[in-house]
Amino acid sequence: MAKILIVDDEPSLRLLVKATLSVNKSFELLEACDGSEALSRAQNEKPDLILLDVMMPKLSGFEVCEKLKNDQSTKNIIIIMLTAKGQQSDKDWALSVGTDYFLTKPFSPIELFNLIEKILNEKELNTVKAE
After folding, report:
1. Where are the domains of the chain?
2. Looking at the domain covering 2-125, what would its CATH class be?
3. Per-residue pLDDT tens for 79-126?
């Protein structure tokens, strides 16, 4: 069962993403409402994938991503940055801190679902090949 951490300070966005992803019963969905909680949950729960907002209280998504990617125990977690900040400089910053994918808000829930399924299927295939 793939574990996905949904991180956003907007409860309505977390609810939308959770409703979208709950269609797939093989996803275990976790939530965090700010950067500090995201960092803690990621370190404790070791999700397979994190959907990470950029603009949040306590720690920004950029800061959370950088800390997770610089930590040996969490560096392989796939991070999809979800943000209203869609300028090239924001994308460049996200990539410089280790973001794996970048999706601009508003996004299509179907597009998000398909991207997650594709990423997790590829991760599973790579894991099987490595064994």
Report:
1. 2-125
2. alpha beta
3. 999 887 767 777 777 777 889 998 888 888 888 899 999 998 887 756
